[in-house]
Hints:
Largest sheet: 5 strands, mixed
Number of strands: 5
CATH topology: Nonspecific Lipid-transfer Protein, Chain A
Radius of gyration: 14 Å
CATH class: Alpha Beta
Helix content: 40-55%
Strand content: 15-25%
Order of helices and strands: HHEEEEHHEHH
Shape: globular
CATH superfamily: SCP2 sterol-binding domain
Structural class: alpha+beta
Amino acid sequence: MPGFSSTSEFREVMDRAFRLMSTDPEMGPKLRDARVPQRFEFPDLDAVVNITYDDSGAEQNLRWEWSNEVDWEPKVTMTMSSEVANRYFQGKENVPLALAKRRIKSSGDIKSALKLIPITKPVFALYREMLERDYPHLVV
């Protein structure tokens, strides 16, 4: 099974994925306007990222920090392995099924998070293109 070579590679790839969504002219504004701050925990890498909307008017529609210490409260927390996250961004992980099978654990306002899934679908092709070009060992 393909996997990240290190925590720093995981963060680099996820930063690029978040940037793809944040700056996309379709996804970015919709994600910002949804106003659903989220926390993602990746226990296999001892990593956490908090993501929220960015109203600054700059190029980014989202902002994120790889930290427990942020100045916003998440509406939902999702816990998953880095492998599940990689599969999700390639369109290979069905979130409702993963929740049912406990591959993804969640707390908080899960309904708000599920409403974001259709908005983020365009990232699957963009993410996969990026992997094929720059990280072929991660393609599933």
